[in-house]
Amino acid sequence: MNDVRFAVLGTGGIGRRTLDVSREKDGLTPVAACDRNGVAVDHEGLDVPELLEATEGNIASGPEDGVNDDIATDGGAKADAGTATDGVKQHGEEAGIVASEQGRPTETPIDDIIAESDDIDAVLVALPNLEHDFIPRVAERFAEAEYEGVLVDVLKRSRVIGMLDDREDRLKESGITFVCGAGATPGFLTGAAALAAQSFVEVEEVEIWWGVGLKSGYEDNRGTVREDIAHLDGYDIETAREMSEAEIETLIEDHDGVLEFHDMEHADDVLLERAGICDAEDVHVGGVLDVRSDKKPTTTTVSVTGTTFDGETGTNTFELDDVTSMEANVNGPALGYLKAGVRNNRAGHYGVFGPADLMPGF
């Protein structure tokens, strides 16, 4: 496989970690990155250490150009002309990518990446989806520009998959291979469930239980924490988006830094269903988030229960070692699925694919 040239939309937590992890992966060259105020492009390869240093603390960094007025930033708060820097650890027109020697200021960061996309094999959309149709609309913009290549996201919510499927014909026409839900869950653990299901002729239940420790706290993981709060009892995506930073910090304090989730709306369900493995209603996702400790509060497991060809009922369990971090389990798989997407794209396979679609068929 030839070297893969890729871009990253957003240099908050996920975007920065993806650039960092890519240095340890063979065959990957980051050539472009953007945040809300700047863009950096070098088709010979970005100077990743310099870019990471310049964007340190660049937690709220979602491009907000030209997609109506409701783009959520990587810090999670709804952005508008007056509050675009609300909740941003490092902010201002001279912060983020524009502080890099490789960066330049822009008011249209996504369009600037699209303008360079003829020489970009894949784009990782490292932005939160606090507006349900945000990432699907970003995909549509690439399709309208006749981009031929791969788009990858790490979105979580089930309903977004349908929005991408609604745009699949247009993506195919352009020559886009879109790999959706390619992080940890959905993503890594969805693929693990697809493998674990191979022992059975019928899958009865899939249970995903995750544990994440974030010693760096809410301050350095605003987008992730805000999205997860939307899954708590009494909250939804709208209320989470409108919460102030002080309200979120109070919520975290009230829970002693540990948030527990049950029956989350994670896209593992529809992604496993569309791969023919089980019904969406038979997939259950929950977990525990500790924003004050790097130690996982619980072990991450995937359990698949089903019936074998000879009539036996059993459960296959996949377990992640507690020493593997969120960064390792999100960004490593995201880059792996990006490579898989490029292989499929070069083979002429276009459209919308989930993690389970890229595993052995059921």
From TrEMBL:
SUPFAM superfamilies the UniProt entry points to: NAD(P)-binding Rossmann-fold domains
Source taxon at top rank: Archaea
Catalytic activity annotation: N(6)-[(2S,3R)-2-amino-8-carboxyoctan-3-yl]-L-lysyl-[protein] + CO2 + NADP(+) + H2O = (7R,8S)-8-amino-7-(carboxyamino)nonanoate + (S)-2-amino-6-oxohexanoyl-[protein] + NADPH + 3 H(+); (8S)-8-amino-7-oxononanoate + L-lysyl-[protein] + CO2 = (7R,8S)-8-amino-7-(carboxyamino)nonanoate + (S)-2-amino-6-oxohexanoyl-[protein] + 2 H(+); N(6)-[(2S,3R)-2-amino-8-carboxyoctan-3-yl]-L-lysyl-[protein] + CO2 + NAD(+) + H2O = (7R,8S)-8-amino-7-(carboxyamino)nonanoate + (S)-2-amino-6-oxohexanoyl-[protein] + NADH + 3 H(+); (8S)-8-amino-7-oxononanoate + L-lysyl-[protein] + NADPH + H(+) = N(6)-[(2S,3R)-2-amino-8-carboxyoctan-3-yl]-L-lysyl-[protein] + NADP(+) + H2O
GO molecular function, one term: NAD binding
Keyword annotations: Aminotransferase, Biotin biosynthesis, NAD, NADP, Nucleotide-binding, Transferase
EC number of this enzyme: 2.6.1.121
GO BP: biotin biosynthetic process
Active site (record annotation): 156 (nucleophile), 227 (proton acceptor), 231 (proton donor and proton acceptor)
Pathway: Cofactor biosynthesis; biotin biosynthesis
Record note on quaternary structure: Monomer.
Protein name per Swiss-Prot or TrEMBL: (S)-8-amino-7-oxononanoate synthase BioU
Source species taxonomy: Archaea, Methanobacteriati, Methanobacteriota, Stenosarchaea group, Halobacteria
Encoding gene, per UniProt annotation: bioU
